[in-house]
Write a structure and sequence with these properties.
Chain lengths: ~270, ~325, ~80
């Protein structure tokens, strides 16, 4: 427990930490905005009516979180409206595992059970932060995320039990997306300075270990193999927490910006 | 062996008796209830793909959240109706996945594509108003206990949809320009659909099992008038033209054309000077509208995809 | 994927009794919990619980209330 005084606002952060805290917030905000867009594609076509309802609720939660996170960036000199409505895909800093659309239900399940949980592991590490805005805003998000994780893991187990192609499709998706999730946490010493300052309570390596501890038993218990991943950070960009800079699916970004209904933007 | 005859049950429910189990129903009561719940469930279900079109492309995070919340509610309401039907022996799986698209019993209004955000909010303002008018009446009057209880949630949420629609219709009209024009365009094709929503006028259809068994309280004309009395003043207030007006002397809204009339589906234009018979209107409903097949497929795709995977072991 | 009906009970405030507010279909209790929470979100519930419908046994009537009746009706003689 750090006895150091709290950091009330962006201006009170050490100069060398301000950009990285700002990027951390943007990374979470973009990931949640895009995850909500991808979840929403299953509001109609999920395998059962109750799952449609859950997908809709999950997407709204993610958008609610992203709205809070974008608003936090005002304090860092960003313009939330610009971030929401003006950026091209290559300016997005979302987790790379969400670049591709969720075109099948197994892909939805992996995003829900695994990728969403990675974001939650990062949020949890901020819940007791010395940076007051984190401490004040993470609790509600974490409460809502409990139900995301419950939904994801229940479906993951169900797909594992089903076996056959349902199981193998989930395993294939894990193979495609799990490496990007592990890389998102960064090199082992990533956020070492932020940890020393009590902003984030774990380094990149520790966050990754927490994530694996949480998801590996779930995956194995549901009958899936945990993909073996060789970590490689030589071309990883610490600001965006990404390796490629193409950004998410352009159509998902067009929706996030509200392109098609720009004429009605007035809230 | 049913406990009551039709005549006995009609008298009992008119005196306030609440039906709580299947052995208290007659065959005709059950049949009328199943029809009512099927229309209700299908209407809620098919509103979801209809709203989803513009909701997924909503102009901002806030509008995306509110419109997706509305869709979530509608799916929940469909689920409630189908759950009640299941308890009456109608398979939920059949209702969701086994019918032909044209066998769904929702109003023709939810067989149409909504082209933009303005049309979504007009649908909230006009179609959800129709929904509340119908379900509010059922909630106050139904003799079926499980439905009366379930409608508490439904009523609460539908009111939110309606407010969403009306607030946004006002906002878009006040901002003028393209936003206002799109509201006008939406109202022009949706208003006559709302007029038709409530079905045949009372003078052409006297007898109604739903009224006799107290599954609802108001006649078609009374329901339509309730809807008109809410929608017409709203449109007049925000300067949107409709083929109806408020009659000061009569103290109610009056429709200015002889309905039903012909509709040009491709142009989304009502031919108000081409009256048709109710039989012709019903034929149009039964043929279903342009989005019918697409909408039904969209609510089923994940189930069929997963069933396909499960069949390949 | 065998599904069961789960009854949803909830109360809004601490002093309130639990009320039967609806039901959901689910293949396991974990999904039933999430589905109930997401489907019946019209209030900020103080407490919500789910139970399989066939866990309810009628006491004074031949059948449980219609919306909580057992999954498989007793075979009639």
């Amino acid at each position: 427990m750090s006895e150091a005084p709290e950091i009330a606002a962006a201006a009170d952060l050490a100069d060398e930490l301000r950009p990285s805290v700002r990027n951390l917030i943007l990374s979470l905000a973009d990931s949640k905005r895009i995850l909500g867009i991808l979840y929403a594609e299953w509001v109609l076509g999920a395998p059962e009516l109750e799952a449609n309802i859950a997908a809709s609720s999950l997407s709204q939660d993610e958008w609610g979180h992203s709205r809070v996170l974008y608003a936090m960036l005002k304090d860092f000199g960003d313009e939330p409206d610009q971030l929401e409505h003006e950026r091209e895909p290559d300016a997005y800093q979302n987790i790379e595992a969400l670049d591709g659309r969720l075109t099948t239900w197994p892909e939805f399940v992996v995003a829900n059970a695994i990728i969403d949980t990675a974001l939650t592991v990062q949020l949890e590490a901020l819940a007791a932060s010395r940076f007051a805005p984190f401490r004040q805003r993470m609790q509600k998000q974490l409460e809502e995320e409990r139900f995301h994780e419950a939904h994801g893991s229940a479906w993951l187990r169900r797909m594992g039990r089903a076996g056959g192609q349902a199981r193998s499709a989930v395993q294939d998706t894990l193979g495609q997306r799990y490496p990007a999730v592990l890389h998102w946490f960064g090199p082992d010493d990533f956020y070492a300075a932020e940890k020393d300052e009590g902003i984030c309570d774990a380094t990149g390596g520790e966050l990754r270990a927490r994530f694996v501890e949480r998801t590996a038993p779930l995956l194995q218990g549901a009958g899936f193999d945990v993909p073996k991943v060789d970590l490689e950070f030589s071309s990883w960009d610490p600001a965006a927490r990404r390796t490629n800079r193409d950004g998410p699916d352009p159509e998902a970004v067009a929706r996030a910006r509200g392109d098609k209904n720009r004429a009605f933007l007035m809230d | 062996m049913p406990r009551f005859t039709d005549e006995e049950l009609k008298e009992k429910v008119q005196n306030g008796f609440i039906v709580e189990s299947e052995d208290e129903m007659t065959e005709s009561y059950k049949k009328a209830l199943i029809t009512q719940l099927t229309v209700q469930g299908d209407t809620e279900l098919m509103s979801a793909p209809s709203y989803f079109g513009p909701a997924k492309d909503a102009p901002s995070t806030n509008t995306m959240v509110s419109s997706m919340a509305i869709i979530q509610d509608e799916l929940g309401h469909a689920n409630i109706a189908y759950r009640l039907l299941e308890d009456l022996g109608v398979s939920r799986h059949y209702l969701m996945y086994e019918r032909e698209p044209h066998q769904f019993k929702h109003p023709y209004g939810f067989d149409q594509y909504l082209d933009n955000w303005a049309e979504l909010v007009v649908a909230n303002g006009l179609f959800d108003r129709a929904g509340i008018t119908l379900l509010g009446d059922v909630h106050r009057n139904t003799s079926y206990g499980p439905l009366k209880r379930a409608l508490v949630k439904v009523g609460l949420e539908e009111n939110f949809h309606l407010r969403h629609g009306e607030v946004w219709m006002r906002r878009l009209c006040e901002s003028g320009g393209e936003a206002r024009d799109k509201v006008q365009r939406g109202v022009s094709w949706m208003f006559p659909m709302g007029v038709e929503w409530f079905g045949m006028p009372d003078d052409k259809k006297r007898h109604s099992a739903q009224l006799d068994f107290r599954l609802k309280g108001m006649t078609n004309d009374e329901l339509r008038q309730t809807w008109l009395n809410a929608v017409v003043p709203l449109c007049e207030e925000i300067g949107i033209e409709i083929p109806a007006h408020w009659d000061e002397e009569a103290g109610r809204a009056v429709v200015d054309y002889e309905f039903p009339v012909n509709y040009d589906e491709e142009e989304k234009v009502w031919l108000l000077d081409e009256p048709i018979s109710w039989e012709q209107a019903f034929d149009r409903w039964k043929r279903r509208g342009p989005a019918n097949v697409d909408y039904v497929e969209s609510v089923r795709k994940g189930r069929f995809q997963l069933d396909e995977m499960l069949s390949k072991q | 994927m065998a599904e069961r009906v789960y009854i949803v009970l909830a109360r809004k405030n601490r002093e309130d009794p639990l009320h039967h507010i609806g039901s959901v279909h689910a293949s396991d209790p974990e999904l039933a919990r999430v589905y109930a929470w997401k489907t019946y979100d019209e209030e900020r519930w103080f407490e919500m619980v789910v139970a399989p419908r066939d866990a309810f046994h009628p006491v004074n009537r031949a059948e449980a209330p219609f919306d909580i009746r057992p999954e498989t009706p007793e075979p009639t003689a």
